[in-house]
Amino acid sequence: MSRPIYVTRPHLPPLEEFLPYLESIWESGQLTNGGPMHQRLEQALADYLGVEHLSLVGNGTLGLIIALQALDIRGEVITTPYSFVATAHALRWNGIEPVFADIDPQTFNLDPARIEAAITPATTAILPVHCYGTPCAVEAIEAIAQRHGLRVIYDAAHAFGVGQRGQSLLLHGDLSVLSFHATKVFHTFEGGAIVSPDARTKERIEHLRNFGYVDETTVVSAGINGKMSEVNSAFGLLELKHIDAALARRREIDGLYRHLLAGMPGIRCPLPPAVDGGNASYFPILVEPGPRPGRDALYERLKQHGIYARRYFYPLISDFPVYRSSPGAARYNLPNAALAADSVLCLPIYPALTDAEVQRIVQLIADR
Ligand SMILES: *Cc1c(COP(=O)(O)O)cnc(C)c1O
């Protein structure tokens, strides 16, 4: 049988390309605490992403936790049940109650009308996710936030490099948080970043990221260890050299799937093609109810052939026992999210996936 195919496979440049970076770290002797690699990566990423103020962190979850702390968010925060569980966990780690609102079935992102309906006197912020890299309804969310005096923190873990009308999506909201985990479009093994609107917020985040230290003897907040090491930062600098080629190949695969799946009974590609600023970070299909085997049967069938597609996102965050009693968590309140969780399958997509592998996956779906 052919090699197993996972939903993603981290991009790794040739090892010899990384050795000079390691030599430079060994020479400097500085391994962490904002060394030269860290400084270079912050600048390079800010330039690449088209933002002014960016702070690296150890991972995306820490980024979310620190972002919520930086804005002093309390009480209730409205968020989506259709995401990776870390979105809600970051709230709980700050003693904040997640309030779940339903998604728009077209975009899989929070439905602005449902956000507004979920606001209570305890609401202080909105934590939307740009699911699969599809931009949220940023203008409508901004208007709601203004009307009700709420902050907006975007979980932009899927949105690396996504643009809208030539502008970075990361400029919306009060803060945006990226993940550079190995499974993401751009990765540093583990890592993440917070995009701030101004230098003062960035400074506050950087204190929180470093135990609250502002100088050798002054601690201004109960900070955490949220730093990215020099090795991770160096790897990011190298990955950045390959990112345009990786994104181009992802978009090609996105196009090939669409072409091969077009018109297939019971299968729908719900997202628009990843042209015009999309990053093709995921390739979700909807397996519609009908005479043919359903989503879970297809998932099992692919697995039997060594193809590990993923049910992102199933179960819903609100279905995990730790969140089942949170406001809005009942499935009747979240019909669109529940339907998506029961019918979405994310197919493998990553730069090293070959056209022949895509054809084989689609053939297995066709023959189900
Ligand atoms: C990956 C991911 C995170 C967590 O990022 P880590 O870097 O793995 O901590 C948070 N939210 C979403 C939507 C994610 O996909």
Task: Describe this protein's structure.
With 368 residues, the protein is of the alpha/beta class. It has two domains: 15-238, Type I PLP-dependent aspartate aminotransferase-like (Major domain) (Aspartate Aminotransferase, domain 2, 3-Layer(aba) Sandwich), CATH 3.40.640; 243-366, Aspartate Aminotransferase, domain 1. Helix content is 37%, strand content 15%. The protein contains eleven helices and 16 strands. The chain has helices spanning 15-28, 36-49, 60-70, 86-92, 112-117, 138-148, 199-209, 230-261, 295-304, 335-343, 355-366; strands at residues 5-6, 53-57, 76-79, 97-100, 123-127, 151-155, 163-164, 167-168, 175-179, 192-196, 213-215, 218-219, 267-268, 283-287, 307-308, 344-347. A seven-stranded mixed beta sheet has the order 2-10-9-6-5-3-4, sandwiched between helices. Strand 5, helix 6 (138-148) and strand 6 (151-155) form a beta-alpha-beta unit. Helix 3 packs parallel to helix 4 and helix 3 packs across helix 7 (199-209). The chain is globular. The two termini are 19 Å apart. 45% of the residues are buried. Bound molecules: pyridoxal-5'-phosphate. Pyridoxal-5'-phosphate is lined by residues 59-61, 83-84, 86-87, 129, 155, 157-158, 179, 181, 192.
Predict the CATH topology of the largest domain.
Answer: Aspartate Aminotransferase, domain 2
Within the largest sheet, what's the order of strands?
2-10-9-6-5-3-4
Share of residues in strands: 15-25%
Q: Which structural category fits the helices and strands? A: alpha/beta
User: How many β-strand stretches?
Assistant: 16
What separation lies between the terminal Cα atoms?
A: 19 Å
The kinds of small molecule bound in this structure are: pyridoxal-5'-phosphate
On the 0 to 100 scale, the average pLDDT is 97
Order of helices and strands: EHHEHEHEHEHEEEEEHEEHEEHEHEH
Major β-sheet profile: 7 strands, mixed
Q: How does CATH name the architecture of the largest domain?
A: 3-Layer(aba) Sandwich
Give the helix tally. 11
* Residue runs with pLDDT of under 50 for 5 or more positions: none
What's the CATH superfamily of the largest domain, by name?
Type I PLP-dependent aspartate aminotransferase-like (Major domain)
Helix % is 25-40%
Q: Name the overall outline.
A: globular
Radius of gyration, in Å, reads 21 Å
Number of domains: 2
CATH class assignment of the largest domain: Alpha Beta
